[in-house]
Write a structure and sequence with these properties.
Layout (H helix, E strand, L loop, with lengths): L21 H6 L21 E6 L12 E7 L5 E6 L5 H15 L8 E2 L9 H10 L3
Parallel strand pairs: 1-4
Antiparallel strand pairs: 1-2, 2-3
Length: 136
């Protein structure tokens, strides 16, 4: 458009090396790199548990399960896995795991639950339940 005189007041720089706009560089917010290893330490079981739901599998198990619901306590690094037939069973699976933690590991249960914020963990009933029991 500039070359065809359709636009006025614009100059083209045809040099092969790009120029760096100093105000643009100074105006950008710089962020620290995300650490590759967490330095956070936990002092008791259930202080923070991370969870993820995998599936559906291409082939169902003999029991008809297509999903794997995984939990890991970050204090002990102890993994736990539950097999589900449907993604919608994640909430009940979590409640069973939480009950197991209370009986076998920590009577206070789970203080903080971490996830990838997949849809199965954002369900209204699930989030209301976590709020009601005080889990972050």
């Amino acid at each position: 458009m500039v070359r065809n005189s359709a636009v006025e007041g614009v100059e083209l720089d045809s040099s092969p090396t790009p120029t760096i706009c100093e105000p643009c560089v100074r105006g950008k917010a710089h962020r620290k790199a995300f650490p590759k290893v967490s330095r956070t330490t936990y002092s008791k079981y259930g202080e923070k548990v991370v969870t993820d739901l995998w599936g559906p599998a291409q082939v169902q198990s003999i029991g008809g399960h297509s999903f794997a619901h995984m939990f890991e306590d970050l204090y002990s690094r102890e993994p736990c896995i539950a097999f589900l037939k449907a993604k919608s069973e994640a909430f009940e699976s979590y409640k069973h795991y939480k009950a197991w933690v209370k009986v076998h590991r920590n009577p206070n249960g789970i203080a903080c639950l971490g996830s990838d914020r997949g849809g199965e963990f954002l369900d209204r009933d699930f989030t209301t339940y976590l709020q009601d029991v005080g889990t972050i």
